[in-house]
Amino acid sequence: MGATRETGSDAPGEARFLARLALLAVLGSLLVLVLALGEGGLIVLGAGLLGVVLCAAGVWWFVAHRGLLRVIGALLVFLAPAGVVVLFAYQGLWLTALILVLCWGVALTCARAALRRSRPERPQVATAAARPARPVLIMNPKSGGGKVGRFGLVERAEELGARVILLDPGAPADVAELARRAVADGADLLGVAGGDGTQALVAAVAADHDLPFLVISAGTRNHLAMDLGLDRDDPSRCLDALTDGEELRIDLGDVSGRAFVNTVSFGVYADVVQRPEYRDDKAGTALSLMPDLLVGEGVRRLDSLVDGAPLADQQALLVSNNPYFSPDEISGTGRRPRLDDGELGVLGIRVEDVAQAADLAVRGSQSTGLTVLSAHRVEVTVSGPAEADGSPEAVEDAGTDGPPEAAEDAGADGPPEAGTSGAVEIPVAVDGEALRMPIPVVCTLRPGALRVLVPRDRPGVVAPPPAIDWRRILDLAFGRTVRTAPR
Known about the structure:
Elements: E1 5-6, H1 13-35, H2 41-64, H3 68-91, H4 94-118, E2 126-128, E3 135-139, H5 147-150, H6 153-159, E4 163-166, H7 175-184, E5 189-193, H8 196-208, E6 212-216, H9 223-227, E7 245-255, E8 258-260, E9 263-267, H10 268-273, H11 282-294, E10 301-306, E11 309-314, E12 316-321, E13 344-349, H12 354-363, E14 370-375, E15 378-383, H13 385-389, H14 393-397, E16 425-430, E17 433-438, E18 441-455, H15 470-477, E19 483-484
Parallel strand pairs: 3-4, 3-5, 5-6, 6-18
Antiparallel strand pairs: 1-19, 2-7, 7-8, 7-18, 9-12, 9-16, 10-11, 10-15, 12-13, 13-14, 15-18, 16-17
């Protein structure tokens, strides 16, 4: 977004060399196909594409239907790739297929390396941090299957001079209120050993009082810790920040008055995680509900305004605190290269039949079923039954047992703020926690609102590969002026 800038016609020599290698690898794969035309080159290409389409169709039938179609879908998922391999072996085409895969792999590797060298990532500014005098850390002993106890986090924190508030899993507590009381008692740092949902609640208090915030990776998935580069295997290393730390300024998300550090999900995923049985049987619950949520009669769809522009009839909508580096990575393994760019990431999904599922599998982020945007404000409402009668089915059936995805924090969070009386509410998953909020639900960002104290040594800091842009690769290879969006 914003005006473009020129990087000049003399790209670094290494970037130009790698861009040319990438183009040579692409040409090599085309040459292999041409030379192999008489030897079955088109069969390799066609069979590979057919295998992807059939596999995508199988996934769709398995997820969106029940009975015989689900069985057929499961069989396709396994038989389609196996059939392609058998065909290559039977026709003696495995060597051609292998060379094509290698050429394409070299092309992608060199292209990403060229793009990274032509426009290095702007490092996030870290400033020296004084050692806190009165740090207060809130720890949930159930988080991550008991990481607080396994790694001796309480003892280690107290050795470093921190006061630890250990939550009682059997007695629900309002962690935000605990954090506010700690501030009133003179705390000069707040921290959390727990899931991302609890991290967000305490982070909001730290941001409101302009205090540094310490993330301890004791949750199950630890998305925020991952994007900060913290050690997720040994949460005790996060405590090194108390004695040898530096400070980062990052953005803090806001969804209708509630803070979030990672993502806010609407639609299919948010509907599924509302169910109380999801805690104990995630896959079974999802498979049971998906057909009704995807193709059932009278299904609800999401409408939204993304910086004022309409985005209608989506099945699922993901709003993130800063964009993920690749829209093709929809799973929980995706990473955000930065947390201080001041923009929300927006990912909308609409797949209603097997053809659209195949299109998404083949074209990825270029598919019409996937919308990838960035924005400063997202306003979400619904179309269909929810607005007509004020009682969306998924909300009526939803349990109120707390956050399923962040179940290790059960009993740690206070009750979500209630909507206005009689207002239509929709399921919302905020950092994995199942909530319901009155429409319209508004997502915004507080740029640079959160001061995060991190250790100087962060083993998880990696530079994610840039998205492939073949037009820029051509510009780099031939020394043309490269226009890029400002960073």
